[in-house]
Amino acid sequence: MGIKDMYLLAYNAGMCVGWGTILVKVIGHLAEGRDPASVYPGIARLLCVAQTGAVAEILHAAFGVVRSPVGTTFLQVLSRLIVLYGAVRIGDTDSTKSLVFVQMLVAWCLSEIIRYSFYGANLLRVNLASLTWLRYSAFMVLYPVGITGEIGCLYKALPYIKKHKPWTVELPNKLNFTFSWYNTVWFILLGIYPYGSYVMYSYMLAQRRKTFAKSASERSKKSA
Fold first, then answer.
1. Which residues are catalytic?
2. Phi, psi of 169, rounded to the nearest 5 degrees
3. Is residue 93 a contact partner of residue 87, using CB atoms and an 8 Å limit?
4. What EC number(s) does the entry state (predicted)?
5. pLDDT value, residue 221
């Protein structure tokens, strides 16, 4: 195994452990009968590290470290960072105080644990049919669950954003420039998410068909 593969293995293992730890903390919190609205403080820092760490995947794709489309990778990471920093961590919003946050968080955790485990297994040349099936099938449920959770978190942050105006630039100013994060969030909710979700889901379905068709072809060749 070369240096590049060793680095990627360490990266995927670290990310898998990070998301796994978050999931264990969330399950433990809920198993104790505690309020779902109080989940966030216990995992806030780790969530920030784990999700921000995904920025490295954009660099991996951009510099050819992995064979992943840069555009798709960028959009996937960016959408989550917008939710994390533009709704969850932007202030004392209602985003983290409702079940939609837990819904989103669990979907993120399961998706990433499966994904990073799959990548790690590939680097070790371990072919697990069950893991491959999960990698290309679990998203059919987890993606809609995660997306609706993200939309819910952004929506629940709107009252706080409207009142406190974070990330907002108002006139007059020296640059004669104005920007409203409140209006931007509405644009993301109504303009970006409907189209972007369709594109991403269609892309993943295409990847699923391609992978399973290849597996079926290889099995038929072996049995011939």
1. 143, 150
2. -120, 125
3. yes
4. 4.2.1.134
5. 65
